[in-house]
Amino acid sequence: MTDQGKPALQRQTTNLIEKAARFNDISEKKTSSRDKRANFLSLGFFGEGNPSRALFNQTKNILVIGCKNAGKSLLLRNISRTCEVRTLRKLNKNQNTINSLPALTIQTVPTIGVENVTCTFDNQPLAFREVGSQLSPMWPSYFEQCSTIVFVLDVSNYSKIAGPATEIMSMLHGLMTSQSGKPKSIAIVLNKSDVASAEDVEKVTTFLRLQELCDAYTKHFGLPEESHLAIVLEISSSTGYNIQELLTWLS
Ligand SMILES: Nc1nc2c(ncn2[C@@H]2O[C@H](COP(=O)(O)OP(=O)(O)OP(=O)(O)O)[C@@H](O)[C@H]2O)c(=O)[nH]1
Ligand SMILES: [Mg+2]
C-alpha cells in the first residue's frame, strides 16, 4: 500500500516516528555521550555552572582541630562566606577569584563539643566538623570518619606554639601507625598571620620541622611530594588570606 492509501492517523504516526528517528540520528552524530550527559545536567536542576561535579562528587568530610582560640570557628565562618561569594560570582559570570572581601569582624564563642558547617566550593560539597579543644583527648576517635584533617595553629604568640606542635606529631604518628585504609590528607594551617606579633611563618615551619614532618608522612604512604597529601599553609581566618588556596586544596 502507498502512503496515500494509508489512513490519515497511521500516516501521521509514521511521519512522526521517521522524524524522531532522523532527529536522534543527527543528535547522535553531533553529540558525544559526554556532551549529552553535560547537556542533561545543564538543564538547571542543580543550580551552578558545571553541575556534574555537584551530582557526582561525594561530600568530603573534613575534621578541623587545634588548640583553644587557634581560630577554628572563625576559619569556618570565613570558608562559608568565601564559598557563597564565589558561587554567586560564578553564577553572575563575574570573576572567579575573591581577592577583595573585607576582614571578618564577627565575634566567635568558644566551641563546646562539636560544630558542623557545610558548604560547596566549585561544586565540591564539603562538610567541616570542628571538634573543640576541650575534646582533644577524643580527636583520634573522629579521625576514622573524615578524609582530611585541618590542624589550626595560632602563630600570633610564640609561647603558644610548642604545645600544638606536640599534638601535631602525635596525630601524624597515630595516623601512620593506624591500619585504616586510605591515608588522610593533612593541612597544618598557620593562622593569625595578620597579627603584627605573628611569628614569621617560615621560622615557625623550620623551628617545628613541619615541612619535614609532612614529607615523612607523605613518604610513609608511598606517595610523591607532588601529591600534596600533607601541606603547611599560612592563613588568616580574619582577613581571608590564603583561604581560597586552602579551599582549592580541599576540593
Ligand atoms: N587577628 C586574628 N584573629 C583571629 C584569627 N582567627 C581567629 N581570631 C580570633 O581569635 C579568637 C578565637 O577564635 P575562634 O575561631 O573562636 O577559635 P577556636 O579555635 O574556634 O576556639 P575554641 O572553639 O575555643 O577551641 C577570636 O577572638 C577570633 O576573632 C585571625 O586569623 N586573625
Ligand atoms: Mg571554636
Automatic annotation (TrEMBL):
Keywords noted in UniProt: GTP-binding, Magnesium, Metal-binding, Nucleotide-binding
Name by which UniProt lists this protein: FERM domain-containing protein
GO terms assigned for molecular function: GTP binding; GTPase activity; metal ion binding
Lineage of producing organism: Eukaryota, Sar, Stramenopiles, Ochrophyta, Bolidophyceae
SUPFAM superfamilies: P-loop containing nucleoside triphosphate hydrolases
Annotated InterPro entries: FERM_domain, P-loop_NTPase, Small_GTPase_ARF/SAR
Source domain of life: Eukaryota
One of the Pfam families matching this protein, by short name: Arf
Residues that hold Mg(2+) according to the record: 73, 111
Binding residue positions for GTP: 66-73, 191-194
UniProt domain FERM: residue ranges: 184-251
